[in-house]
Write a structure and sequence with these properties.
The complex is a heterodimer of chains A (110) and B (119). Chain A has 110 residues and is mainly beta. Helix content of chain A is 0%, strand content 50%. Chain A has no helices and eleven strands. In chain A, strands 2, 4, 5, 6, 9, 10 and 11 form a seven-stranded mixed β-sheet that branches. In chain A, strands 1-3-8-7 form a four-stranded antiparallel β-sheet, with no helix packed on it. In chain A, strand 9 and strand 10 (98-101) form a beta hairpin. The relative contact order of chain A is 0.33. Chain B is mainly β. Chain B is built from no helices and eleven strands. In chain B, 38% of the residues are buried. Classes of the chains: A mainly beta (110), B mainly beta (119). The A-B interface holds A 1, 34, 36, 38, 40, 44-48, 51-52, 55, 57, 89, 91, 93, 97-104 and B 38, 45-48, 51, 57-59, 61-63, 95, 103-107, 109-112.
């Protein structure tokens, strides 16, 4: 069974930069996994931020960017703002018509 | 603008069958894309349940496959989830989603519906 890993929690100062990562317990993440990133605030549906590794969804500010860093997918947030405080989930396509979410990262802006 | 809206009972008894519907507006199910379901237990992360395409492609989470059925009703622009033999572990917010076959991201989400399994 494929397990996708994310940092359970991270914090960033207002105006600062933070990088969230998305890895595998076995193997490396590459563009072939079509990594995508979602932002979720309490009580709301997730919102797509990034897809196919580094493509921003419509309306997403350029403070959010996606990449592959080493053997993981990464979401970098620059110029962090208070309303970036959310849960962030990565999603990987693991092949054979199967998708797996990471456990999520709770981002605190303080 | 594409909109997805879940509906169904908010309470299901243990061992019975959970049935949810997702009505799609602003886009035709038969125009392509994949249509599926994601759930989120209280205080926990997201879990993909399964997806279907209008052409008949079927994808299911292996951990749920034996209990899950997803069907599309293209003429009436809705799709459904059936989950058999539910337990307390199936208590969650259930989201219907649209996702792309090419980029494989989930690009449109319903607002979600809370389903509680009671003993």
């Amino acid at each position: 069974q494929t397990v996708v890993t994310q940092e359970p929690s991270l914090s960033v100062s207002p105006g600062g930069t933070v990088t969230l990562t998305c890895g595998l317990t076995s193997g490396s993440v590459s563009t072939a996994f079509y990594p995508s990133w979602y932002q979720q605030t309490p009580g709301q549906a997730p919102r797509t931020l990034i897809y196919t590794t580094n493509t921003r969804s419509s309306g997403v500010p350029d403070r959010f960017s996606g990449s592959i860093l080493g053997n993981k997918a990464a979401l970098t947030i620059t110029r962090a703002q208070a309303d970036d405080e959310s849960d962030y989930y990565c999603l990987l396509y693991v092949g054979r018509g199967s998708w797996v979410f990471g456990g999520g990262t709770k981002l605190t802006v303080l | 603008q594409v909109q997805l809206q879940e509906s169904g009972p908010g309470l299901v008894k243990s061992s019975e069958t959970l049935s949810l519907t997702c009505v799609v507006s602003g886009f035709s199910i038969s125009s392509g894309f994949y249509w599926g379901w994601v759930r989120q237990p209280p205080g926990k992360g997201l879990e993909w349940i399964g997806s279907r395409s209008p052409s008949g492609s079927t994808y299911d989470n292996a951990s749920l496959k034996s209990r899950v059925s997803i069907s599309l009703d293209s003429p009436r622009e809705f799709f459904s989830l059936t989950l058999k033999s539910v337990t307390a572990a199936d208590t969650a917010v259930y989201f219907c989603v649209r996702h792309r076959s090419g980029s494989k991201n989930f690009d449109c989400w319903g607002q979600g519906i809370q389903v509680t399994v009671s003993s």
